[in-house]
Structures are given as structure tokens and as C-alpha cells.
Amino acid sequence: MDYGWLAIVPPLVAIVLAFVTKRVLISLFIGIFSGGLIISGWNPFSGTVYTLDTVVGSITDEWNASLLLFNLLMGSGVAFIWRLGGSEALTAWARKKIKTRKAAGIGAWVLGIVIFFNDYVNAAIVGNVFRDISEEHKISSERLSYILDSTAAPVATFFISDWIAFQIGMVKTGMETAGIDGIQPFTGYLYSIPLNLYCIFAVLLVGMLVITGRDFGPMLKAEHRAVTEGKIVRDGAKPMLDVNYELGEPKDTKPMLITFFLPLIVLVGVTLFGFWFTGRGAGGITDILGASDPAKALLWGAFAMSITGIVMALSTKIMTLSEAMDTFVDGLKLMLLACVILVMAWSLGSITAEMKLDEFIVKAIPPNLPFVFVPMLIFGLGMLISFATGTSWGTMTILTPIAIPLAYALTKDAYLSVAMAGVVFSGAIFGDHCSPISDTTVLASIFSGADHIDHVSTQVPYAITTAIVAVFMYLLWGQFNITPLILIPLGIILLFGLMFWLSKLSRKKYGINPKTKRKIRKKESI
């Protein structure tokens, strides 16, 4: 059935309600129900049944179930790190090494780049390492969640990760659809990297902001609040993760760094082993990644992390068996709300897929479009679909088989057409980066201890600024086929200029020095 413009109603309802009510869970459910109502012919009873069936289907899906269990077990791992004094030990060590807010911000940014092999693990590790450090240096939870979100999915698209295995598969599908021969899918993926401009600029903007301190928009107000009032979250905020409240004080024992690092080392090691084990026998490393089961690998890693916490608690005699089991269960509870939100987000994605939102958007593409506008259009469609559905992988699945054949039909240039995949990946990551119903956006809020809507509202201006620069660069590429060796430096210069200009505008609007976060006098100059 063709639902036409009604296909956009469920995600639109969810997103608008999330911003208006600041209640993500109920907003997502109402969005899902609106879709169920439409699909069921506006019958309230049938719509309710369809909604519940969709939610159940999201939970029982093997991939989703594995990721839900991964999140729950990650919560238990975090609980042991906290109660065994691991976070306290790292904070004590960091106080000696990190002396300034700038150093703390740079540290989180760099670690976010280093943890490249999975966006979920990235958010979990960087958040756990720097949540206490950020509070110590009066960095707002909004700023930390932005750093996490901007170095999770964007970084995972560039390096050896479960992401590139999927992306290589998408490039292969696009090439087959276009009838392009003579280029290996992995080679095509490499050609796409320099045109993944949104991700490149998103990661670099984080560095620019933490180094210069030139914040703008709502983030400037959040940072001003943290610096001048010492409030890491705003009054009335509802952080998605409050470790102090949920888990209480750490055990009264000497904090040891090993209780922080050992569980994380086990997590990383077992996860990497899981990638190899589930994809073994496939050939080279890229083939292994392509054949691996990321959900299983992550689940094994999180399980091993939790078991490590139990073993450490008992072997050091810091906890009794009863206390260790209580900690394990409390950690599961820590992630319960996040898991429910993830289920709602997946269910909304299923509803939009059933209503063929992708086809509705793609049909809006004008026929005989000049190639100069194609990169910008594909990027824009990727942004729209990913923001509405909250899924970057789903967006890549929809657009890559369209973008590569479209470019090839217009140019007959195989390498240029394959590189269009980078444009698709850029647009897809935009939604993954800032949609309130994206799983990685939710996880960034969780592991930074931020209010979810505050995280989204402070991050969106940065994401839009980055997207504007990417659009301009795509226009130049489409018109003149300029090499990325020129496009990227040019985009960096433009991005820095926009950041500086917007910070000056924010200074005038809020009466705050964007660099120092202090209130300014009328005659004070930057």
C-alpha cells in the first residue's frame, strides 16, 4: 500500500513531541502508535495491537536482543568499575595529569578517536573515563555528550570496525546495481572516505571547540552555567544516567586503577576476539570483518567485562558474593530506561519501513537533475531520512543503491560514482549524530549523564554548522570535480571561520565571552 505523505507522520510526531514535551519515551510510543493507527486503517483497537506486535518484534529480533543484552551487561560492568573504586582511582590519577578544562576536553576528544572499532563501545568507554573528570573541571554534561556523539559513529566509519564491513557491502550493492565492473568493493570504499565530509568535519569541529573554547548557541549557555555556577546539568534536568544516585558511593577501600582498566581491557580484547572468531576463515581482515557478527562480538565482550568485575570483587575481598550479585543487578537496572528507549526507536524504524518512508522521499527527486546538484541532494536526503528514522545503517541501505547508479548514469565515471557512497555515509551519520531517536545519540546521553533533550538541543547547532560546510563543499565538487585534497582544507578553513563568527554572535546575544564563558562588560573585547 502507498501511504504517500502519511509515511512521514510517525517520525515527525515522535520528534516534535520529544522537543515539546522533553519526554522521549512517551513521544516515541505515540509516534509508533500513530503509525500503527494509519497502517490499521485508523482502527484504534487494531492500531494498538499492531503497535504492540511491532514492539515485541523489535525485542525478539536476534540482532536487537543481542544489543539489548550488551547494553544491560555494559551497565553491570560500569557498576563494578564504580563500586570497586575504579572511577575514583582514575579521577585521582587524572587530577595529577589533567590540570585544565582544555586538557580534559582534548583528552576526551583524542580517546574518542582512539576507540574506533565500535560506536557503542566508544561512547561507553569514553563516557566512563571522562564523566567524573569532566565534572571535576566543570565541563557541562552537554559538552561531554557532544564529544561522545561526535567521535563515536563518525570515527567508526573511517577505521577497521564493524561499520566498514557493512559499508563495503553497501558499496558492493551499489556497484552491482549500477553495473560497474573492475573495481573491488574495498577499493570503492577507500574512494568514498575523502568524500565523507560531514564525518571529517564533525570530528575536527570538536577539536576546534575544545582547543579554542569558542562555543556558540545553547552550548555556550550550558558551559557558562557549568563554569560560573558549577552546575554540570541544568536545574530540572533529568540525566539519563546518574551513577551516584543509581549506584551509591563506591566501597570504602583504596581505589586502584586496575579496577578501572582491567574490565575495559577485557571488554576490548574479547570484543576484538569475537570479531575474529565469528568471521574466521573469510580471508583477509576486511573479509573477516564483513563475515563477522558484531552483535555477538559486543555481547561476548560485555559479558566478559561483567564476569571480570565479579571476579575482581571476590578475589580482592572488597565485596561478598551477595554484594557482587547486588552490584550486577543494579548495573542491569542502570541501563533499563536506555534499553526501553532503544526498543521504541527500533519499533519506530520498523513502522517507517512498513510505510515506505524511503520511497516517498526518493520519489521527490526531480528527473534529469544536473550532476552538480546530485551530491548535495543525496546528502540532504540522507540527512532527512536518518534524522526522521534515527538509523544511519538503514539510511545507507536505502540510498547507496540509488546514489551510485544515479551518479554513474549521469557521468559514466566509475570512480567518481563509487565515491558517491561517501556522500551517502555523510548524510546518514548526520541523523545518527543528532536525531533524538538515534541509538548512538541516546547512548551519548547515557554515558555522559546528560539530559537527552539538552544533549540534542545543544548539539544540533554544531551539526547543522558542519552540514552547511559539507553542502558547500559538495556543490564545489559537483560543479568542478575538485580533488578532496583541496576540498577538505578549504572546508576546514570555512568551518573555523563559521565557528569564530557564530561565537561572536553568541557573545552579543547572551552577553557571555565565548572563550572564557564569563559574563562580559559592555566595553570588553574578545
UniProtKB/TrEMBL annotation:
Coiled coil stretches, renumbered: none
Family annotation (InterPro entries): Na/H_Antiport_NhaC-like_C
Domain of life per record: Bacteria
Principal location: membrane
UniProt keywords, alphabetically: Cell membrane, Membrane, Transmembrane, Transmembrane helix
GO CC terms of this entry: plasma membrane
Membrane-topology annotation of the record: Multi-pass membrane protein
Origin organism lineage: Bacteria, Bacillati, Bacillota, Clostridia, Eubacteriales
Keyword NAD: no
Protein location: Cell membrane
Name of the protein this chain belongs to: Na+/H+ antiporter NhaC family protein
Segments crossing the lipid bilayer: 6-21, 28-45, 65-85, 106-126, 146-168, 189-211, 256-277, 297-314, 334-353, 365-387, 393-410, 460-477, 483-502
Domain Na+/H+ antiporter NhaC-like C-terminal: 156-478
